């Protein structure tokens, strides 16, 4: 419509409460925060706590405290996935009604990295056997443009196969829940790590099946240890230091290729972030997949 304003940018940060934030997760949080606020947008916080066996008690509170210490204040209320099971169940029922989902009795070990659809034609007479729910994929090419990694195209059935939406233990899979969450929170710009780049086509496919809009995607380089592995809880990454936020923010802005001036090295957190918002240039990270700490 002539003269209408473009929709406000809504970004988000969605950590899992499996431990405290480490430098890699804080790096991603700052990147998504800067991207949203550089466009006068909103930045939401979601706690992805569906994978209950991996959750650590009190980790969510520590995550919130860390973000506050680092001046990364979110807009609105924190969304906890575990409080919205009905949203995922309702969306799953839509796909079931369309016969786009089927039961799978295969173990993770026997499924392989790309599922061959062996349970697709199975007559379901194993009522007491645990099963997962898989979505049917087809021979479509799915393309999207990542703001840092360019144009990407995946052959869904050959590169992903029929993938799981609900696990055998009854837990909704991340790749399904995130699609519903982003839609319900009206997220239109997703900024996250490049380790999630390859599964993005799955989420776009689900958006298409459910008739949902597709956000803009930007996948930041991941931070790696000396041996090249991703800095993560699994590689025993240390928790973020809450006593030296200004030093850490300056360091992370440098890792984000923002070239922060030495004048803000010892400035207040709010001043550092204000500078970073007004000077945010994500294209400085284009083509970079991994950033080493050393």
Description of the structure:
The protein has 294 residues and is of the alpha/beta class. 31% of the residues lie in helices and 17% in strands. It contains nine helices and twelve strands. It has helices spanning 23-37, 59-69, 85-97, 108-111, 156-159, 174-184, 200-210, 245-255, 269-278; strands spanning 10-13, 42-47, 79-80, 101-104, 132-135, 141-146, 150-155, 164-166, 189-193, 216-220, 222-224, 290-292. The chain starts with 9 loop residues before the first strand and ends with a strand. The relative contact order is 0.17.
What's the arrangement of strands in the largest beta sheet? 1-2-3
Estimate the helix proportion, in percent. Answer: 25-40%
CATH topology of the largest domain: Rossmann fold
- What is the count of DSSP helices, taking H or I runs of 4+ residues? 9
How many structural domains? 2
> SSE order, as H and E?
EHEHEHEHEEEHEHEHEEHHE
- How many strand units? 12
Structural class: alpha/beta
Uncertain regions: pLDDT < 50 for 5+ in a row?
none
Rough outline: globular
Question: Care to give the gist of this entry?
Answer:
This protein has 294 residues and is of the alpha/beta class. 31% of the residues lie in helices and 17% in strands. The chain folds into 2 domains: 10-84 and 176-292, Rossmann fold (3-Layer(aba) Sandwich), CATH 3.40.50; 85-166, Glutamyl-tRNA Synthetase, domain 3.
């Amino acid at each position: 419509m002539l003269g209408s304003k473009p929709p406000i940018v809504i970004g988000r940060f969605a950590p899992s409460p499996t431990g405290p934030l480490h430098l890699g997760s804080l790096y991603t949080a700052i990147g998504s925060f800067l991207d949203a606020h550089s466009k006068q947008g909103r930045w939401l916080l979601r706690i992805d706590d569906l994978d209950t066996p991996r959750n650590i008690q009190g980790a969510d509170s520590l995550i919130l405290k860390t973000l506050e210490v680092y001046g990364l204040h979110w807009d609105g209320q924190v969304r906890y996935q575990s409080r919205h099971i009905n949203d995922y169940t309702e969306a799953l029922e839509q796909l079931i009604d369309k016969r786009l989902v089927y039961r799978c009795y295969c173990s993770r070990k026997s499924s392989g990295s790309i599922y061959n659809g062996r349970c697709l034609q199975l007559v379901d007479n194993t009522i007491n056997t645990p099963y997962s729910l898989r979505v049917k994929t087809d021979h479509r090419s799915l393309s999207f443009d990542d703001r840092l990694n360019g144009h990407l195209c995946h052959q869904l059935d050959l590169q992903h196969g029929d993938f799981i939406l609900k696990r055998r233990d009854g837990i909704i899979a991340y790749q399904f829940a995130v699609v519903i969450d982003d839609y319900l929170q009206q997220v239109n710009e997703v900024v996250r790590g490049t380790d999630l780049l390859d599964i993005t086509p799955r989420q776009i496919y689900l958006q298409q099946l459910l008739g949902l809009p597709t956000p803009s995607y930007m996948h930041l380089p991941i931070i790696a240890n000396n041996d090249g592995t991703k800095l993560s809880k699994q590689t025993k990454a240390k928790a973020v230091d809450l006593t030296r936020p200004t030093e850490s923010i300056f360091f992370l802005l440098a890792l984000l290729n923002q070239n922060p001036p030495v004048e803000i090295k010892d400035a207040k957190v709010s001043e550092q972030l204000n500078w970073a918002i007004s000077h945010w240039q994500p294209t400085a990270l284009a083509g970079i997949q991994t950033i080493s700490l050393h």
